[in-house]
Design a protein that fits this description.
Layout lengths: L9 H8 L4 E3 L6 E5 L3 H11 L9 E2 L3 H7 L4 H10 L9 E6 L16 E5 L4 H10 L3 E2 L14 H7 L18 E6 L2 E6 L5 H8 L4 E2 L23 E2 L9 E5 L8 E2 L6 H17 L4 E4 L7 H12 L2
Parallel strand pairs: 3-5, 4-7, 8-9, 10-13, 11-12, 11-13
Antiparallel strand pairs: 1-2, 2-6, 3-6, 4-5, 7-8
The structure holds adenosine monophosphate and magnesium ion.
Length: 312
């Protein structure tokens, strides 16, 4: 039988109660988590990340009931939450943006002054334990400096924030940020692709949804910046034949490499390896990062979304 590591979460809870930030593992990527009700705690997240204050944070809660303290869930939002959020069997990484319940206590800095709130129930035992013990909402953007690659291991977080207390939950299982869907009135807009695909959502709701345009001025998703998730080295997409100076990230049997996102061409596996290989490639003694073509369907859309924002 597998040994379960017992974590003493009390020190982390004390840090959160003091309005400070911790590194928190989730199913998607590591987050910089702090009390979403405290302007000071939230300001520390923005400062640590050098994140522009117009880019709102995802608020993490323990369950749908807690989410409903802060957001108005219409029928579509409820259906999605019941289907995708823990403890449902199908639980996966979906953030739902809904109208904010006025005066429910979330720092307006965390929402960048918007009248909507992005809520998510992470599907990760440690994150859920922390949320249960802390008994409050946690603002938790990815634990990386703004615009840089997302962290999928505690070491990635440590490298960026050496002083930060980090709860080490091992490598994240999904390895790519949550899908974001905007649900308000009769509007359903996919703001960010992820492991939960547009087709998955359409199947659950039995409706078609629209995709948000990537543009820096979009009010709906101010954080959907064109430039994001970028490594320090130039990143080139759709490379079938790498140059000698390239750190090459392959995909499938047709584009092999020592760093292959998935030898069998499995897109979910590829999404899980994406940031880890980008981190590795970024620290190699090479001039640029070249990446094999990735099919632009299903989860491939999430991978290409991240790559195109990181590409030079
Ligand atoms: P990150 O925390 O880096 O995963 O980014 C969070 C994403 O959620 C950003 O793209 C934000 O713009 C988006 N987001 C957060 N809150 C809202 C909101 N109220 N409305 C629309 N998008 C949001
Ligand atoms: Mg991020």
């Amino acid at each position: 039988m597998m040994q379960k590591t017992i974590f003493n979460l009390d020190p982390m809870i004390s840090i959160l109660n003091a309005g400070k930030v911790i590194g928190l593992p989730t199913d998607t990527v590591y987050g910089l988590a702090a009390d979403a009700r405290s302007d000071c705690a939230v300001a520390e997240i923005y400062a640590l990340k050098s994140r522009p204050s117009f880019n709102p944070l995802i608020i993490h809660v323990h369950d749908l009931q807690k989410a409903q303290l802060y957001g108005h869930f219409n029928e579509d939002a409820l259906r999605l939450a019941h289907y995708f959020w823990a403890p449902a069997k199908t639980a996966s990484a979906l953030t739902i943006v809904v109208p904010y319940k006025n005066a429910s206590g979330i720092s307006s800095l965390a929402m960048a002054g918007l009248d909507t709130i992005a809520l998510r129930v992470p599907n990760h035992p440690l994150a859920l334990d922390v949320l249960a013990k802390f008994d409050g909402p946690l603002a938790a953007p990815s634990a990386n400096p703004s615009n840089y690659l997302s962290p999928t291991t505690a070491n990635h977080v440590r490298a960026a924030f050496p002083e930060l207390p980090i709860l080490d939950g091992g490598a994240c299982t999904l390895g790519i940020e949550s899908t974001i869907i905007w649900c308000q009135d009769n509007n359903l807009v996919l703001l960010r692709p992820g492991i939960v695909t547009q087709q998955d959502i359409e199947q659950v709701l039995e409706k078609t949804i629209t995709k948000a345009k990537t543009d820096n001025t979009s009010i709906r998703s101010p954080g959907a910046l064109k430039k994001h998730y970028a490594p320090k080295k130039p990143l080139i997409m759709n490379v079938k034949t790498p140059l000698p100076g390239d750190a090459y990230i392959g995909f499938g049997p047709d584009y092999p490499s020592a760093m292959n996102l998935s030898e069998t061409g499995d897109l979910k596996e590829a999404a899980g390896n994406l940031f880890r290989y980008l981190h590795t490639a970024d620290t190699q003694n090479k001039q640029r990062i070249a990446i094999a073509p990735i099919p632009d369907s299903g989860i491939g859309q999430a991978i290409n979304d991240r790559l195109s924002r990181g590409a030079k």
